[in-house]
Design a protein that fits this description.
two-stranded parallel ribbon; 13 helices; globular; disordered C terminus
Length: about 250
């Protein structure tokens, strides 16, 4: 048994043994998953666990999902991050499977003192909130709604404006995956204001997606020579390093 892999498995699962009970298969899985796979590449444990949470949600492997939610919480993934990751799966696997995954998230969040709450009451949703995250109001239906129809449904209740931001914590930050529709889901004052970190968010997402693409394709690339391999590996290392924050421009 790989002792390093065994220790990592124990640390990530808070000392609990979730794997199969067959001793030979258990040893193979720990050596492979927590020895080879986890130590391949430069992704940190938080990002690895978030990826596994999404994979197990989409595959509807709920037992494994429960295990990785526990592991994610143990390495610093927050209940909010888990909830948002699971939410993003809805268009691909359907609401029913996502609801089951959320129940697992709620159960595990309680163990760490966190919570997962779904509400249409903005006062409840924003009370003591550290981040306010919204998205566009189009692309939600098979038959796309007109701007007038969207505004009738969502405006003004769900528009993020200065008054709505005041309901959150004073230090709250505004997030949006972009592109935004100004005047619909968010106002100019919020999008361009001091609480907005949407450009930093966009830069981080771009860097993360590029890094994942290189990470997953790297084992299959046939480099011409050692020098070229070192060049690409160097670029990957630079890509994975935190980039400086974008300077706010007038």
């Amino acid at each position: 048994m790989n002792k390093k892999a065994e220790q990592l498995f124990s640390d990530l699962n808070d000392g609990k043994d979730f794997l199969v009970k067959d001793p030979e298969l258990r040893e193979i899985m720990i050596n492979y998953l927590y020895g080879d796979v986890y130590h391949h590449g430069n992704l940190d444990f938080k990002l690895r666990e978030l990826i596994l949470i999404v994979v197990n949600t989409t595959n509807h492997t709920l037992k494994a999902l429960k295990e990785h939610v526990t592991s994610g919480l143990s390495v610093g993934v927050t209940p909010v991050e888990i909830k948002e990751a699971v939410y993003q799966c809805t268009p691909y696997i359907g609401l029913g499977k996502v609801e089951e995954a959320l129940e697992i998230g709620k159960e595990n969040a309680k163990k760490s003192g966190g919570s997962v709450q779904i509400t249409e009451d903005v006062n409840v949703a924003l009370k003591d909130a550290d981040f306010v995250y919204t998205d566009v109001w189009y692309g939600l239906y098979e038959a796309e709604l007109s701007e007038e129809e969207r505004m009738n449904i969502f405006y003004p209740t769900y528009q993020v404006n200065n008054e709505l931001m005041k309901k959150a914590s004073p230090h709250a930050k505004f997030l949006h995956c972009l592109p935004a529709t100004r005047g619909e889901e968010v106002t100019d004052e919020v999008l361009d204001g001091e609480q907005s970190i949407v450009l930093d968010e966009a830069e981080n997402r771009l860097t993360a997606m590029r890094a994942l693409l290189v990470y997953f394709l790297n084992p299959y690339l046939d480099y011409a020579d050692q020098a070229l391999a070192e060049k690409f590996d160097g670029e990957l290392q630079c890509m994975l390093k935190p980039k400086r924050q974008l300077e706010r421009r007038d």
